[in-house]
Amino acid sequence: MSKNFDELLQKVKSVSKKTLSVACAQDVPVLEAVKEAHDLGIVDATLVGDEAQIRSIAKDIGMDLSDYRIVNVEDKVEASLTAVKLVHDGEADMYMKGILPTKDFLKSVLNKEVGLRTGKTLSHVAVMEIPGVDHLVFLTDVAFLPYPTLQDKVQMIEYTVDVANACGVENPKVAPLAAVEVVNPKMPVTVEADELRKMNESGEIKGCVVDGPLSLDIALYESAAKEKGAQDRPCAGKADILLFPDIHAGNLVYKAINHMVPGIKTGAILTGTKSPVILSSRSDTKDVKINSIALAAVLSEHMKKANA
Amino acid sequence: MSKNFDELLQKVKSVSKKTLSVACAQDVPVLEAVKEAHDLGIVDATLVGDEAQIRSIAKDIGMDLSDYRIVNVEDKVEASLTAVKLVHDGEADMYMKGILPTKDFLKSVLNKEVGLRTGKTLSHVAVMEIPGVDHLVFLTDVAFLPYPTLQDKVQMIEYTVDVANACGVENPKVAPLAAVEVVNPKMPVTVEADELRKMNESGEIKGCVVDGPLSLDIALYESAAKEKGAQDRPCAGKADILLFPDIHAGNLVYKAINHMVPGIKTGAILTGTKSPVILSSRSDTKDVKINSIALAAVLSEHMKKANA
User: Fold this and answer.
1) In A, which residues are within 8 Å of B177 by CB distance?
2) Mean pLDDT for chain A?
3) I want to staple B239 with a disulfide (CB 3.0 to 4.6 A). Which of B101, B102, B162, B175 is the partner?
């Protein structure tokens, strides 16, 4: 079980090396992250995009391109379709966004012929190493799916359980979060959290322990759980997966702790696709991108094993 | 302007000393906080509740009761009605919860004859001193009103502007938060945030600058605002007031940063009442209670001046 990103980066090295396909790779931060991930031995990469620009940036950042496959496609939309097809065809294991609009990148992911669509809803998992919490925490959804339905949430739990499993966390503890830890008919979020708990109890949601509603302090801190007499709740103080009521709650928590907690580390991945997809954003640091590549690599290994 | 709680505690000493009425004061953490606030010169207090128990606890914690008025009422509901009436009648300036169920405490606040009801919706403001942010941040609502309507939010802004004013923050910058900083019809929260901005522009919401929707990073951090090209937004990087979409978003952020950010400081107050009300919870530390008493004292002064 990877308890932090250092352990995850070690774990990646123990599986067969994966290949990343990057759409529109002609971007300094993206190439810096790919270079470092490659230098760490985590991935090989195929760089799809404007070759002249890629070569120029590589020269500037001291990146030896002889280790990489380059596919020259100048048009950005076309480049994304070429890059995603490599993953679709099995020539690469995972797909990463370079410098193109998110909308166009997602269109390539969902392309019916060459994309990675499964027919299921796409969602997003952020993985965080939080000082004071002794295990990796998997947050969903802080960035992609605005208002998930109950059925979406069932899938989001399944996706996130896969990501947790890929990181070596077996039978993860899932906390559907709310402002309070008791069911209150006046707060639909708590009713839905209880519904998810029941679906887990009845075996409809498998491979995890769902215990909701939980407040964030009870989910992550045993001291808070004890203080509130909730220490016997199955996920109290030990939640691996935090399921947010909606994107606003998730994103506001994510951005708050990302900016305010010294030493916090993050990686993230899109879920609901045939192969791992990294939807990096411009504001992600190099470390976030590298952590996300590592996540994608262990998830790729996990998905291949599951399908084998 | 109080930039942090130390400055706020200094500010309180510059206004005429206020009197706190405590309902069911027979509780160690409550009496410890009242004692320390009194020792700091912030308040006088009337302790309503079980006198024998109050005297016994006072002895244990070295609290000299000759400085306090004690009103012996053993029944908890009756004690709360007695305590709130002192504020209603002007014999005390603010009202604080001791050891009784929140439900009963709120009933006393809303009591038609002796309570502090205004007929307006009750809400809650948490004030936080966040390391890395150079001013106090006012969060609403992280603890009380589950699903505020647009009209509720207008009132919540008015309440929080009053609290900010009481802390010396003139014309506070208000950020109605969302996952994103642009209006998206598929995300009703962003439409509502924009609605509040327009109501401020047209003069319907006064005494502040409303700029929404904003994401949390843009609201509080100029670097994030610049990165996203949002540095010219009126509240970018400088938001005083964070208005949350609902209680889940607010509470999850509040609990996350309260537990995860070293050195964070907090105080809180109920709003929408005739006089300041402190709805302290068992899990609040002594410092949180003292900060809340200080907030109540400056708010009491502010409300008296406004009504003079």
Assistant:
1) 248, 252
2) 96
3) B175
